[in-house]
Amino acid sequence: MSSHQAPRPPLIQRIWAARISYLLLLPTLLLLGVFSYYPAFSGILYAFQEVEPGFDARWVGLSNFRRAFTDEVLLASIPNMIILLVGNVLRTTILPLIVAVMISHLSGARLRYFFQTSFLFPIVVPMMVIILLWRGFILDPNVGMLNQFLGLIGLEFLQQSWLGDHSTALGSVIFVGFPWIGGIGFLILYAGLLSIPASVMESARMDGVGPIRRFFTIELPLVLGQLRLVIVLTFIATIQDFGGMLVLTGGGPGTATHIPALHMYFYAFRFEQFGYAAAIGVLLFVLIFALTVLNLTLLKSKMED
Length: 305
Prior knowledge:
- The chain is an all-alpha fold.
- The protein has a single domain, classed as MetI-like fold.
- The chain has 15 helices and two strands.
- The chain has a two-stranded antiparallel ribbon.
- The radius of gyration is 25 Å and the shape is flat.
- The relative contact order is 0.13.
- The mean pLDDT is 87.
């Protein structure tokens, strides 16, 4: 038998051999192009133009970007975004990871299934429903459960308009969804824990490794890849999302909860300055891309160590 491998067929020949698969993929690619890639590239093009309803688009070059870097309201919203980003990263990693670890160590399979299903069940509830419930039934200054509870235990002096006060609005937004066991993040981390070989955990038990030491020396290092994914998804969701903030506070009071994505929304759909809004969107894309690369690089280095 010859030790040399047979020469690989030319690319065109391989494509022709898999022509049925390519034809079946074509409708999906067309839909992606029309509804995903075309709007994205159009947005980049609009960022260099002045686009307003009723007027022809006019090329303005980098004017929209220069305007963004001198926009006082936009600049004032950046610290809010940073605080929100840090808060969301903490809430999507710490408690979900702790709960996932505790469930993974339950002895009974039925018990584990019950608890993992219980924590995954909120996935079926739209996030906007949860936000509306928190705004109307928990944080409302008049009939909200939080103020009612504080009055019930004799802490009336702590009652306030949580979303209407400049000093508490952003913290209240971060607090929405407590205890923050998000289904997607929990599922990713739990899957990472289940992928740890049983032999590794058994060896740790035989060596007398306690639960805290086992977590920091075995479980946490082995789920860094899943943590990296959760953090990246949190970066993307926090920076580009404006719906929750729009419903909860509308960016107020003042600029206490104003964030760049909400600023983009206002200029696009209230002020109808689509070119400037597109420029803000491009800047947010660059920021998301930079933070994602930084996160992947840092965690990759940590995993290699």
